[in-house]
TrEMBL record, chain A:
Superkingdom of the source species: Bacteria
Entry's Gene Ontology cellular component terms: plasma membrane
Segments passing through the bilayer: 12-31, 37-58, 70-89, 119-137
Principal cellular location given in the protein's record: membrane
Family recorded in the similarity comment: Belongs to the CPA3 antiporters (TC 2.A.63) subunit B family.
Keywords from the named record: Cell membrane, Membrane, Transmembrane, Transmembrane helix
The protein's name: Multicomponent Na+:H+ antiporter subunit B
Taxonomic source organism: Salirhabdus euzebyi
Matches recorded under Pfam families: MnhB
TrEMBL record, chain B:
Pfam (any one): Proton_antipo_M
Species this protein is from: Salirhabdus euzebyi
Protein name per the record: Multicomponent Na+:H+ antiporter subunit A
Residue ranges occupied by any MrpA C-terminal/MbhD domain in the UniProt entry: 619-682
Gene3D superfamilies in the cross-refs: NADH-ubiquinone/plastoquinone oxidoreductase chain 6, subunit NuoJ
NADH-Ubiquinone oxidoreductase (complex I) chain 5 N-terminal domain: residues covered: 60-107
Amino acid sequence: MKTNDLILRTTTALIAFILLAFSIYLFLAGHNAPGGGFIGGLMTAAAIILMYMTYGLDTMNKVIPLNFKLLVPIGLLIATLTGVGSFVFDQPFLSQTYTYVHLPILGDAELATAMLFDLGVYLTVIGITLTIILSIADDN
Amino acid sequence: MIYAVFAPLVMTLLIPFFNKWKDKIHTGWFLLPIPLFIFLYFVQFIGEGFSPVAESYQWIPSLNISIDFYLDGLSLLFVLLISGIGTLVLLYSIYYLHKSERLGHFYIYLFIFMSSMLGVVLSDNVYVLYTFWEFTSISSFLLIGFWHYRERSRYGALKSMLITVFGGLSLFAGIVTLTYITGTTSIQEMINQKDIIIDSPLFPLILIFIILGAFTKSAQFPFHIWLPDAMEAPTPVSAYLHSATMVKAGIFLIARFSPILAGEPMFFIIVSLFGIITLCWGSYMAVRQTDLKGILAFSTISQLGMIMAMLGFGTKAAIFAAVFHILNHATFKGSLFMIAGIVDHETGSRDIRKLGGLMTFMPISATLALFGVFSMAGFPLPFLNGFYSKEMFFEASLHLDGYGGQFIPFFQQAIPYLAVFGSIFTFVYSMYFFFGTFRGEAKMGELPKKPHEAPIGMLISPFILVLGVILIGLFPNLVNGTFIAHSAEAIYGSAVEKDIYFWHGLTYPPLIMSIIVVVLGTLLALTRQKWAGIYTIFPRNLSFNEVYNYIVDKTETASTKITNKYMTGSLRHYVLYILIAILVVSGVVFFLTNGFAIDTSGLSTLKLSDVPDILVGLTMAIAAIGTIFTNNRLSAIIILGVVGYGLAILFVIYRAPDLALTQLIVETVTVAIFLLCFYHLPDLKKIKEKPSITLTNSIISIGFGALMTIIAISAHSSKWFEPISNYFLETSKPLGGGYNVVNVILVDMRGLDTLFEITVLGIAALAIYGMIKLRRDKEAK
């Protein structure tokens, strides 16, 4: 018998998006405020897990047809490539730099190569957390 | 010279190809020229005006190790023995070993041995000598175990390996010490630095190390026990290795180092005492044997003891006699081994109780044996070389150099009596060997084969050796000036000129001793049946084989026991060992270096606003203690969560927002994973431990906690360097472009750490995934 969990589903629909938005904020704000790829990734993973808990594995596998295991190598690849990229500019491995660009609407914004590295961390952490928890949860 | 030494070794590479045709031509025929050429090459050095020859080849110059060959009289005597008897043994083995045997293996082992033995006697560099020395041990091991499907062969091979390698390693210690003192690796240069070595406080150590090496190799008491068991080897091997060459390597070693060591009272006592004991013990035990080769093995032991004793005496006459006897022993013992092999080969048995009356069947072998045996017994006849060296031995035992000390004069007086005692038994077992085999009644029924004379090819080698016995007996001075004198000079250090005569007159004491030996020996040999019962009284259980077996057994069982004791397979015990080790090592270092320090100056003062910290801290402490005492897994997980969240709060209080965030989320995730696993775990049972175990566990835990606390306090109290954090605070914005210093450090300044941390996490995730998936697949199967 399926329990009626309407309240949970409704609140999850709201909270999950807030969580996702907050996690992206944490990720983007990392360079200048508390946050960063690691916390952001964990938070995103938390949001996705909340959805899994509410809607069940089968539903979620339809909604997010994504193999989270793939995120681990992708993230690691991005992180490594940002390091290798510094060779192109004749710099040591993992040298970072930053610059300011003027964007049409947002005005002056800071762009740092460290952000790319953090993106790698972010994706890896999401992949890791979801792989671990889903493979344990999936196990009978 | 280097070609001569390495020729057999190079030849081993070709042996497998020769071996392909072994059905048509016996592999030995291809190899026979090698030792013969080596022999002929070295024969040209013989002569009155011989002077040492040196050759040098680089090997490891940076370690001062080069392949230096030094051919002096001593080396020459040995290389001639090795190559000469090697040729004869090879010839003999062609007839002895059947084509169905693994001939390739046999000759490869034999040639490795020949090369290494030549290397041992020619090397001037101690390390090269040691290398060859161990090669002789290894090839001897392979040869003894040649018939590896026999249990006794394997036992004998292992025993000889253990004992000789023990001695070899001791020799290694000796030469390392010698190089350390003298700074050279050349034996000749060490001899020049004799005074430095003798004055060194390490001298007794060197002496013991080298003597141990020589005694184990040369089967001296009490390391003689491997030699009788090595008789499981094919007879050509016994004749070659265990009578003429390898067992003389120890003799060679003592002779080689004599210019350094001899003349010291300690050297005299150890070498001659053990030599004499070996002489007596070996000849006493030989009479007890029933196996022909067993008799010869103990005979070899006893003769080696005699040579060793003479080297120990260190007088001019004794060293001359020793060198002479090395040559004589090689001739008659080699021939006797070959005849024992012939008897075995033609009758199918070596048991002297089954043999007898073979003279009519094997007249030639019997004649050859007759000469060998009487030479070995030292019978006073002018055509037996054994007599000369035995008489010289008696003479040497009567004229010893005086040494100080209380024990030595007594010992010196006892030596001639012991020598006569040993020689009487030598006479007895020699007669026993000959008459037991060739005279008396033939017991045809007990022999596996009908006895008949050996093929002529088999008889050539013992014939040549016996010819040597007679020739040296008839013209002893022929070998004297040409190379015995040179050998003795190499050992003694100065010229040794001596003529050998058969007749010294009736009142000459050594002759009287010889006559006593013959008379008493004949009496004892005739009445052997009556007194043979003495062997059931002594040694009975006092044999050194028992000691050896006891040691080997005990070592095995004791190490098994010890390993089983601490390798319990219980992780609890291993963790205990690790913790105790850390506790003891760190604690001792702390104590010794006086490392404990408390410095309160760097601490902040406690204020009213700190109350939350203390409360959080207290809660965490209580929760931590609570986990120890809870019996419920669920509550343990939740209480552990309290500690984690408390830590997050502390991070907030101590202004580490990134850490606090991470800690909060990680703690949540771990608690969630704990709860996921929780369903699969069995109930947590209250484990009833013995109070003593609980007590040790708590003592160690408390001790470990205390240690960590002390280390933390001390580390905090001693600030030796300016922290690097100021640099990060200053450069975070200008260099990294961010205000979040923690994040800038993580992704920019120390990005490599982060890269590998996420790699670690990735591996962990894949491992968990794999573990669960693979297990599921396995269950599906």
